[in-house]
Amino acid sequence: MARIVMKFGGTSVADIARIRNVARHVKREVDAGHEVAVVVSAMAGKTNELVQWTREASPMHDAREYDAVVASGEQVTAGLLAITLQNMGVHARSWQGWQIPVKTDNAHGAARIRDIDGAFLIKRFGEGQVAVVAGFQGIGPDNRIATLGRGGSDTSAVAIAAAVKADRCDIYTDVDGVYTTDPRIEPKARRLAKISFEEMLEMASLGAKVLQVRSVELAMVHRVRTFVRSSFDDPDAPGMGDLLNPPGTLICDEEEIVEQQVVTGIAYAKDEAQISLRRVSDRPGVAAGIFGPLAEANINVDMIVQNISEDGKFTDMTFTVPSGDVDKALAVLERLKTTIGYDVVQSEAGMSKVSVIGIGMRSHAGVAATAFKALADKAINIRAITTSEIKISILIDGPYTELAVRTLHSVYGLDKQ
Ligand code: ADP
Ligand code: ASP
Ligand code: MG
Which of 59, 125, 131, 213 could be bridged to 35 by S-S, CB 3.0 to 4.6 A? Predict the structure, then answer.
């Protein structure tokens, strides 16, 4: 007997027929004698609709009320799945975040889980009950519903798996694993049998939305054996119930991966904007003077490029922010104009960041040069570059995103291995 947490994303619970299919996956594990807890997302498109309604009600709305609205999507699916399971003869009950409770911090709209006491769910296992938990939501110190940021049900699932010391956390989605790049963009992308925590962390934070970043962090810290797999597979096909090697991608320690490639995957993030400050005074404290106030305004600055000053007095500073934050960032910079001292500020939205990720880069030179040449051959202009030990990120014009992803995917032979 094992203890398994199963998470189902939005497309997997998009309608009643799919919820019925999900219930069959759950029943399979229950019938095999396992202890099962389930985490569900809202039905596909529901959260977007709810978010849109809050914006229509008021563009500048209270984050606590945003949470009250958007958390409702998961409540519906948890109830519907519990009803469906009961109808199949499985002892099931739905639970919302506050009932477990999933305790979070106070950052409404992007809350972090602080604590989950596993005892509540372990008691349910003892009763032979399948707990169907509404993902994406918890309760903050202010005693109000808090949501975990878009894609947050992944994090609910991994956090619950850690809290109940589950043997496995299965993230069921609309693809049958983690691919070398988004299969929607590159049909030649290949499914990875395994990917290391570090690489998955980079893939997720650089745009691959198959897992929320925080869920990968938690899986890494708490050593949760996490699989990404498809809910569209026939629940009763051979091998689906395999305890140690179910079909899908295992997120694991790099030591577990025998044949490590130099490059593991390509990720992309659209809707980036570039902001440049021209002729900024080149003196100590200027970067702090710019990025401190931007951080205080909750603006997520990503790539930063500062030129070497030619005359020792002035320099140019370029950085990227999400396109949606440009106006807010420009307002902050305008306010700082006299304190920082710069000539003009220029901004351009509609950029994309494509990234090459691989642990093998640590020990291989020339990976970056290969990317630059491949993009040059396709006449794709590079606007900014950042690198770390295991990734290279390149800022390009948005319309070239798909071409750049496919070009990089092929130049490292990811479609062939
Ligand atoms: P869910 O609703 O199940 O949480 P998401 O839409 O959040 O599903 O995530 C799954 C999607 O992530 C896939 O449909 C795929 O288009 C996208 N994706 C992006 N990068 C990758 C990747 N490297 N491997 C697999 N899927 C990816
Ligand atoms: N329903 C939420 C969202 O769309 C959480 C999730 O699906 O993981 O962001
Ligand atoms: Mg998701």
Answer: 125
- Asked whether 14 lines ligand 1 (CB < 6 A), one says no
Cβ neighbours around 98 below 10 Å, total: 18
Q: Is the pLDDT of residue 221 over 80?
A: yes
pTM for the predicted model, two decimal places: 0.94
The answer to whether 210 is annotated as binding is: yes
- Extract the tokens encoding 109: 């709209």
Tokens of 58: 């008021």
> Which residue is it, tokens 């096909």?
237
HEC sequence for 329-347: HHHHHHHCHHHHCCCEEEE
Instruction: Give yes or no for a contact between 404 and 396, defined as CB atoms under 8 angstroms apart.
Output: yes
| 282-285 contact pairs (CB < 8 A, 24+) | 282/309, 282/312, 282/313, 282/314, 282/315
Pocket test for ligand 2, best of 7, 12, 40, 47 (most atoms within 8 A of CB): 47
> 150 C-alpha to center of ligand 2: Å?
5
The mean of the pLDDT values for the chain is: 95
Q: Which ligand is nearest to the CA of 174?
A: 1
Whether residue 125 is annotated as binding a ligand: the answer is no
97 within ligand 2 shell (Cβ under 6 A): no
Known binding residue 10? Answer is yes
- Computed from CA positions of residues 209, 213, 216, 218, in that sequence, does the dihedral angle turn out positive or negative? negative
Calculate the alpha carbon distances from 262 to 325, 400, 405, 412 in Å: 35, 24, 17, 8
User: Could you tell me the pLDDT band of residue 417, with boundaries at 50, 70 and 90?
Assistant: low
The domains found in the chain, sorted by start residue, are 3-255 (3.40.1160.10), 265-411 (3.30.2130.10)
Find out whether the beta carbon of 10 lies less than 6 Å from any atom of ligand 2. Answer: yes
